[in-house]
Amino acid sequence: MVRKKHPEGRGPLVAILMGSASDAEAMAEATKVLQEFGVSHEVVVTSAHRSPSRTEKLVADFQNRGTLVFIAGAGGAAHLAGVVASRSLVPVIGVPLDASPLRGLDALLSTAQMPGGVAVATMGIGKSGARNAGVLAVQILALRDVTLRDKLAAYKRSLEASVEEADRKLKQRG
Ligand code: RP5
């Protein structure tokens, strides 16, 4: 890839792509995490099947602008993450969504079962998968960012505290 000198200005660290506007509610979980951690991001609707040229161009443009992680969510025959990965040098995190009578199992297999040589880090189905995509993106970025690593450590402590709090409340109820 020829790396252009940020022709459209500095891009977001994370690009969140989704196959349809109908995916927005679930994918908002990824956005929330990036907002919590103060990580720059952009959200775009683009489809592997309905707008393949646009998808290809977006992936090239984001990389040229310096984007370091893609998150791609789609349902049904979910090929978005795989198509993004086919054109990406940066990590791609796939989020399978529940958008068909098969309740996301179709999307899970479509996203995870990539041919050898083209990697997609596939999360679980739906909102928790989208949330984890946000967390994994932060963890990837934190490899070279001490401030983010400190925030991650605080996040882990808050998870632990929430479990202890739940346990305490349960015991209070008797
Ligand atoms: C997929 O088909 C999209 O990612 C979405 O999850 C699903 C349904 O899309 P719509 O018909 O609601 O636009 O490509």
Record the SSE blueprint.
Elements: E1 14-18, H1 24-37, E2 41-45, H2 52-64, E3 69-75, H3 80-86, E4 92-97, H4 105-112, E5 121-122, H5 127-142, H6 146-173
Parallel strand pairs: 1-2, 1-3, 3-4, 4-5
Helix pairs in contact: 1-5, 5-6
The structure holds 5-O-phosphono-beta-D-ribofuranose (RP5).
5-O-phosphono-beta-D-ribofuranose is lined by residues 19-20, 22-23, 47, 74-76, 97, 99.
Brief write-up:
The protein is of the alpha/beta class and 174 residues long.
- Counting helices, strands and paired strands, the structural category is alpha/beta
Tell me, rounded to a whole number, the average pLDDT: 95
Secondary structure: helix percent? 40-55%
Give the percentage of residues in beta strands.
5-15%
Q: How many strands appear in the DSSP assignment?
A: 5
Shape: globular
The value of Rg in angstroms is: 17 Å
Order of helices and strands: EHEHEHEHEHH
Cα end-to-end separation = 62 Å
Largest sheet: 5 strands, parallel
Oligomer: single chain
- Secondary structure tally, helices: 6
Distinct ligands, ions and cofactors found in the model: 5-O-phosphono-beta-D-ribofuranose
Strand order of the largest sheet: 2-1-3-4-5
Low-confidence stretches: 1-8
